[in-house]
Design goal:
Blueprint: H1 2-22, E1 51-53, E2 58-60, E3 66-67, E4 70-71, E5 74-75, H2 78-87, E6 93-97, E7 104-111, E8 117-120
Antiparallel strand pairs: 1-2, 2-3, 4-5, 6-7, 7-8
Protein name: DNA topoisomerase III
Pfam family, one: Toprim_Crpt
Organism: Pseudomonas tremae
């Protein structure tokens, strides 16, 4: 009799959990649980069309432009992304991590003439 009560309770719990999981909206959550953009106040820098926003990539609905909001280990904020897409550049940002050296660095970001992302370093020029 006890086993039947336990089995019934487990079945009820399983149904409850399945219902709760089914109702979770993961559309605006990225891997570390931080919300990402639902929409942008910016258009495609290449063609001016509407941008599609997903947790890991922002892409144009009309052309081949795409942009990853995580750059060198740093997740860009919505404001930084909008500045980059509307102005073509950001201010100096901290928190990037070099894959080669493993060190942190700071730089501004800009979109070049092909709408590709580039770092703009503000340090002193290197001597030859």
């Amino acid at each position: 009799m006890y086993k039947r009560q336990v089995d019934a309770a487990l079945d009820e719990l399983e149904a409850f959990i399945a219902d709760q999981v089914k109702n979770i909206d993961l559309g605006n959550v990225q891997g570390d649980g931080k919300p990402v953009l639902d929409s942008l106040n910016a258009q495609c820098p290449m063609c001016g069309s509407e941008l599609a926003v997903t947790p890991r990539v922002i892409g144009c609905r009309a052309c081949a432009f795409k942009f990853y909001p995580e750059v060198s280990g740093k997740m860009l904020s919505p404001g930084q992304i909008e500045a980059l897409l509307t102005n073509g550049k950001t201010g100096v940002l901290k928190g990037f991590h070099s894959k080669k050296t493993g060190k942190s660095f700071e730089a501004a970001l800009k979109l070049n003439h092909e709408a590709k992302l580039e770092f703009v370093y503000s340090g002193k020029p290197k001597r030859a």
